[in-house]
Amino acid sequence: MNRLLVLVRHGQSDWNLKNLFTGWKDPDLTELGVEEAVEAGRRLKALGLQFDVAFTSNLVRAQRTCTLLLREIGQPGIETFEDEALNERDYGELAGLNKDDARARWGEDQVHIWRRSYDVQPPGGESLKDTVARVLPYYMREILPRVMRGERVLVAAHGNSLRALVMVLDGLTPETIPSMELATGIPLVYRLKADTTVEDKKVLAA
Ligand SMILES: O=C(O)[C@@H](CO)OP(=O)(O)O
């Protein structure tokens, strides 16, 4: 059985380019972001991968990435579910601030803790732990059962909502997750075992 699960972070957004904390704000893709989404499709196509269903967030950068990728692999319009459970981590009061300005104001270490620690919340926002607490139930309820039925599943989402999933799939811990980064537009191709753990993982980097 297939049990194919592909995770892809959206292509570069306007706010990635401007180095702004984004969270639940809704900027579109840049030209490079569009190209990254198309390139992700090309890499999946080169492996002959096709999908039965796709999941994305309710933010435009992930939705467009999903649409562009599916068009590139010749599957526009397959069943696609949009849900805020897959949204980026909410960056609270940091949203819209420049990351370098934040480092100058609060210090490199504090900003790194807000961005990459497991359980420290940025002011007014979600920690990765909070993000896991909303992404994981959605994965268990909506995504995993389809993978287990042999459907080939695409998830186009965000750096931290996907770090939440990768943490669980790869068995990372609060100590090891801070060094885990997800590049824009690079598909992670998982095959799962019948017991829902990972049989095989490929990172489709250049
Ligand atoms: O700003 C954000 O929403 C995220 C992703 O772009 O940033 P970070 O990598 O700092 O978690």
Automatic annotation (TrEMBL):
<feature type="binding site">
    <location>
        <begin position="9"/>
        <end position="16"/>
    </location>
    <ligand>
        <name>substrate</name>
    </ligand>
</feature>
<comment type="similarity">
    <text>Belongs to the phosphoglycerate mutase family. BPG-dependent PGAM subfamily.</text>
</comment>
<feature type="binding site">
    <location>
        <begin position="88"/>
        <end position="91"/>
    </location>
    <ligand>
        <name>substrate</name>
    </ligand>
</feature>
<dbReference type="InterPro" id="IPR005952">
    <property type="entry name" value="Phosphogly_mut1"/>
</dbReference>
<dbReference type="InterPro" id="IPR001345">
    <property type="entry name" value="PG/BPGM_mutase_AS"/>
</dbReference>
<dbReference type="GO" id="GO:0004619">
    <property type="term" value="F:phosphoglycerate mutase activity"/>
</dbReference>
<dbReference type="InterPro" id="IPR013078">
    <property type="entry name" value="His_Pase_superF_clade-1"/>
</dbReference>
<comment type="pathway">
    <text>Carbohydrate degradation; glycolysis; pyruvate from D-glyceraldehyde 3-phosphate: step 3/5.</text>
</comment>
<dbReference type="Pfam" id="PF00300">
    <property type="entry name" value="His_Phos_1"/>
</dbReference>
<keyword id="KW-0312">Gluconeogenesis</keyword>
<dbReference type="GO" id="GO:0006094">
    <property type="term" value="P:gluconeogenesis"/>
</dbReference>
<dbReference type="GO" id="GO:0006096">
    <property type="term" value="P:glycolytic process"/>
</dbReference>
<feature type="site" description="Transition state stabilizer">
    <location>
        <position position="158"/>
    </location>
</feature>
<feature type="binding site">
    <location>
        <begin position="115"/>
        <end position="116"/>
    </location>
    <ligand>
        <name>substrate</name>
    </ligand>
</feature>
<comment type="function">
    <text>Catalyzes the interconversion of 2-phosphoglycerate and 3-phosphoglycerate.</text>
</comment>
<feature type="active site" description="Proton donor/acceptor">
    <location>
        <position position="88"/>
    </location>
</feature>
<keyword id="KW-0413">Isomerase</keyword>
<feature type="binding site">
    <location>
        <begin position="159"/>
        <end position="160"/>
    </location>
    <ligand>
        <name>substrate</name>
    </ligand>
</feature>
<keyword id="KW-0324">Glycolysis</keyword>
<dbReference type="InterPro" id="IPR029033">
    <property type="entry name" value="His_PPase_superfam"/>
</dbReference>
<feature type="active site" description="Tele-phosphohistidine intermediate">
    <location>
        <position position="10"/>
    </location>
</feature>
<feature type="binding site">
    <location>
        <position position="99"/>
    </location>
    <ligand>
        <name>substrate</name>
    </ligand>
</feature>
<comment type="subunit">
    <text>Homodimer.</text>
</comment>
<feature type="binding site">
    <location>
        <position position="61"/>
    </location>
    <ligand>
        <name>substrate</name>
    </ligand>
</feature>
<protein>
    <recommendedName>
        <fullName>2,3-bisphosphoglycerate-dependent phosphoglycerate mutase</fullName>
        <ecNumber>5.4.2.11</ecNumber>
    </recommendedName>
</protein>
<feature type="binding site">
    <location>
        <begin position="22"/>
        <end position="23"/>
    </location>
    <ligand>
        <name>substrate</name>
    </ligand>
</feature>
